[in-house]
Amino acid sequence: MKKLILSAIAVLFTTGAMAQSNDYYLPKTGISFIFEVQRDVKDGNVDYSFISVRSQSYGIPDETKHYEAVVDKKHTINYISKTADGILLGVNTKGSEDKIAAPKPAKALPKAGKDTIEVEYRYVPNGDVKRYPICHLSEKQGVLSGEGVADSTYYITIKDEKEVYDPQATVPLNKAGKDNANILVNLPGKITLTIEKGKRLVASHEFYAGQYGRVEALDKQYFLKGKKKSPKYSLEMNPKTGEIRLLK
């Protein structure tokens, strides 16, 4: 990473710590699946059964979307904020990370009786996905990754809807020009996630993911100093999808 000399002109911060560079990543969107499982202990034997599954999205750095903001006397960028792994959170503002619900902490197996545990599997999709086996249940071993007996296997299907989300349609994009500050954002694409247990539909819902859709640059007007005193813009980003949350 390129070292940055701290000055009155440009001081960059990450969330909770000093940054050593003005580089950043846009995110890919992953999916976390948390399975609730019942354990039934009787006479020293354990039987496992699925109860439910819930899903949520999260962001990870996209190695193909690694950029470097231009921080110099020509621009009005004073600092950028990033997650600990480098995903852009904000420009000239701290930004905020979305909290991801974690599975319940693992519990010791009871000597007898029933209890419930939670098991998490994560998956980062790319393109269309047809009935990918996330995990399956062994009545004696518990939850295992991949495919088992079809009726005890959870499958996911992901369809790229070929629809780009642009919540900031009035924000000029893709017109960065010669003096752009190299601040890029995702215009994420809509996908449909379907979850099945065997051939039984469990859930289906739509959401947006950063690796679908496209990347655009913010117009240079937002961070380029003019002859007159230029307004100081701040940008807040969604760390799960890389889209604009707020530009003001």
- CA(first)-CA(last) distance: 29 Å
Radius of gyration: 23 Å
Mean pLDDT level? 89
Strand content: over 45%
Task: Count up the helices.
Answer: 0
Shape descriptor: elongated
Largest sheet: 5 strands, antiparallel
- Strand tally is 14
Which class do the helix and strand fractions yield?
mainly beta
Identify low-pLDDT runs.
1-20
Major sheet: arrangement of strands: 9-8-10-11-12
Verbal overview:
By secondary structure, this protein is an all-beta fold. It has strands at 13-14, 17-18, 23-42, 45-68, 80-82, 88-91, 113-123, 129-138, 142-145, 153-164, 184-197, 200-217, 235-237, 244-247. β1 and β2 form a beta hairpin.
Write the layout of secondary structure elements.
Elements: E1 13-14, E2 17-18, E3 23-42, E4 45-68, E5 80-82, E6 88-91, E7 113-123, E8 129-138, E9 142-145, E10 153-164, E11 184-197, E12 200-217, E13 235-237, E14 244-247
Antiparallel strand pairs: 1-2, 3-4, 3-7, 5-6, 6-13, 8-9, 8-10, 10-11, 11-12, 13-14
List keywords for this structure.
mainly beta; 248 residues; 0% helix; five-stranded antiparallel sheet; 14 strands; disordered N terminus
